[in-house]
Amino acid sequence: MEASFDSATASLLADEFSTGSRESTGRTYLNTASHGLLPSRTADAVRESVTDMAAGRIDMPRYFAVADEARASFARLAGTTPDRVALGSAVSTHVGLIAASLPVGAEVLVADGDFSSVVNPFTVRDDLKLRTAPLERLAEAVDATTALVAVSAVQSADGRVADLGAIREAARAAGARTLVDSTQAVGWFPLRADDHDYVVSAAYKWLLCPRGTSFLVVSEEAQDARVLLPQHAGWVAGERPWENAYGPVARYAPDARRYDESPAFLPYLGAARSLALVERVGRDAIGAHDRALARRFRAGVAGLGARAGAGYEAVPGDSAIAAVPGLGGAAGLLAEAGVVASARDGNLRVAFHLYNTEADVDRLLNVLADGRS
Question: Helix 265-281 to helix 283-308 angle, to the nearest 10 degrees?
Answer without folding.
Answer: 80
